[in-house]
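Tokens for chain A. Residues wanted.
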């Protein structure tokens, strides 16, 4: 987003001027324009136009075929950005000119005039709410409209949903492993795939259950809480406490001033150095590290959190932190805690906690034993799970590379398939049954059982009656004849809602605030049966079709599949 940023934002301003009167902001990334698509979308649009088919009413489903990361659930994200794209979809004259140059020379002027006029005013978008737990084959979005226009939306919409849903799911999986009681911070900016990958990851990790980000730009754009302290470079940049020139610090209530905070720290260090209960575990600590901690505390007395592993965690970092924290306590401040960025995190966090608790008990400093311990250092699902099993005292985890890059799986694999045109259902066949599409315009429901957990998702034809609470309904696997079950739902939830009504006059769902999407995601995970979302050997969630839709799928399949001839 930053490369060539000035040119991109000027382009966006021109587009905003052209779209004067629109009530919705454009996509977060100014590179998301109608040109963010594959060339074949424009070649197909021209062929549709040439054949006089460009205004035929088409229905497309966006869905995925397999859950990521070896799990059995996915979290849907990216809807807001899709709607922003659709609300502002309009080609500029400069873009039309570029398309003209990019298409074969036979392209007629009439098609260029058509491109100048198109927008999404005749497109309808139905979608599952962002932050919802979703499953394979169920449409995440259904787009209806003129076939050429909807075809032009295919690539950008897939681009906006694929990574968003993948990284949100990754974040949710990390949250489930860490547990609800731990704080999770997204620290992936420097390792993300470029500026857009970083901004998107910060947003969608927050939706997936993370509490804060280190990414300042994401904090400004989305209102995500920010967290961060200092690096090893800050610690190693100091040589000794003699470098500290400004040594005074006012008390937290402003009633007094400590003229030499450095001396106060040294006095506390002497007290804890020979505490018998600590068993003399440290002697002289690294003085450059102590100088760095003192300087940071002088700058941020209310938010002092120290990185303690630059030299030696137990013999230097933790005791240096304790001395500074105790000096701050004398002046009415309360230090936040420490961060561990290397070593055996389970062991080191436990040892640090013992030291904090000993100081609270021996020196009578209330709350000192509850100092926050943050851990980072290339954490992922596996290391979080291992640390949890070993036993640890970490309160917060800072996770970066494996989270934002989705290191365990490169892509989600959403697809965009035509399911109906001119009210005629269409099906895509394949020798691989998993790639056979489910035809026609559908309604999708989630059926809940008596314990409050969701039991099954069911797709029906558009005109079929809605499943009713307390009434038995037959749920069938779309392609396997023997897999079927009756369900008597205690609650029925319709999944697809209208988020862009076009000219239909239908009521439009409002896009919720980011915090509300995050809360919805957390609530959704709570409504899933634990065995569906567990990390190891999860139980597959059932996705079904109604008996009537099942029969129609197989009728259409037989009707469309060519009959072979043996000779």
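Reply:
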């Amino acid at each position: 987003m930053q490369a060539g940023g000035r040119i991109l934002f000027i382009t966006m301003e021109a587009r905003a001027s052209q779209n004067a009167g629109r009530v919705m902001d454009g996509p977060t990334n100014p590179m998301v324009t109608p040109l963010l698509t594959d060339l074949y979308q424009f070649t197909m649009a021209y062929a549709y136009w040439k054949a006089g088919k460009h205004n035929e009413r088409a229905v497309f489903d966006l869905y995925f075929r397999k859950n990521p990361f070896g799990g059995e659930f996915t979290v849907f994200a990216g809807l807001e950005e899709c709607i922003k794209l659709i609300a502002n979809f309009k080609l500029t004259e400069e873009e039309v000119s570029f398309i003209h140059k990019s298409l074969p020379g036979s392209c007629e002027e009439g098609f260029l005039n058509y491109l100048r006029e198109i927008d999404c005013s005749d497109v309808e978008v139905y979608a599952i709410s962002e932050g919802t737990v979703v499953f394979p084959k169920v449409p995440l979005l259904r787009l209806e409209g003129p076939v050429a226009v909807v075809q032009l939306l295919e690539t950008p919409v897939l681009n906006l949903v694929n990574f968003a849903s993948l990284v949100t799911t990754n974040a949710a999986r990390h949250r489930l492993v860490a547990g609800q009681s731990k704080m999770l911070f997204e620290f992936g900016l420097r390792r993300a795939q470029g500026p857009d990958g970083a901004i998107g990851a910060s947003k969608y990790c927050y939706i997936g259950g993370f509490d804060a980000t280190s990414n300042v730009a994401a904090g400004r754009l989305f209102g995500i809480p920010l967290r961060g302290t200092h690096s090893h470079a800050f610690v190693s940049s100091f040589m000794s406490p003699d470098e500290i020139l400004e040594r005074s610090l006012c008390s937290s209530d402003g009633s007094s001033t400590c003229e030499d905070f450095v001396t106060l720290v040294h006095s506390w260090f002497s007290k804890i150095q020979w505490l018998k209960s600590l068993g003399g575990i440290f002697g002289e600590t690294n003085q450059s590290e102590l100088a760095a901690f003192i300087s940071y505390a002088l700058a941020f007395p209310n938010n002092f959190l120290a990185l303690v592993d630059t030299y030696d965690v137990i013999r230097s970092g933790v005791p240096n932190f304790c001395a500074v924290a105790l000096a701050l306590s004398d002046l009415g401040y309360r230090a936040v805690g420490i961060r561990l960025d290397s070593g055996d995190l389970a062991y080191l966090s436990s040892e640090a906690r013992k030291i904090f608790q000993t100081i609270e008990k021996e020196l009578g400093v209330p709350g000192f034993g509850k100092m926050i311990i943050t851990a980072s250092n290339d954490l992922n699902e596996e290391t979080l799970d291992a640390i949890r099993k070993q036993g640890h005292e970490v309160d917060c985890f800072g996770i970066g590379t494996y989270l934002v890059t989705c290191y365990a799986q490169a892509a989600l694999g959403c697809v965009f398939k035509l399911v109906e045109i001119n009210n005629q259902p269409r099906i895509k066949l394949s020798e691989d049954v998993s790639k056979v599409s489910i035809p026609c315009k559908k309604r999708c429901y989630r059926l809940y059982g008596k314990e409050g957990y969701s039991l099954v998702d069911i797709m029906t034809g558009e005109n079929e009656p809605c499943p009713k609470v307390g009434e038995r309904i037959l749920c069938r696997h779309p392609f396997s004849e023997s897999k079927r079950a009756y369900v008597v739902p205690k609650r029925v939830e319709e999944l697809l809602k209208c988020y862009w009504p076009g000219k239909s006059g239908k009521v439009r769902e409002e896009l919720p605030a980011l915090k509300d999407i995050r809360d919805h995601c957390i609530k959704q995970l709570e409504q899933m049966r634990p065995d569906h979302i567990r990390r190891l050997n999860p139980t597959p969630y059932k996705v079904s079709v109604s008996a009537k839709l099942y029969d129609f799928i197989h009728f259409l399949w037989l009707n469309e599949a060519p009959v072979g001839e043996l000779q």
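The mean pLDDT is 94. Residues 49 and 131 are 37 Å apart (CA to CA).
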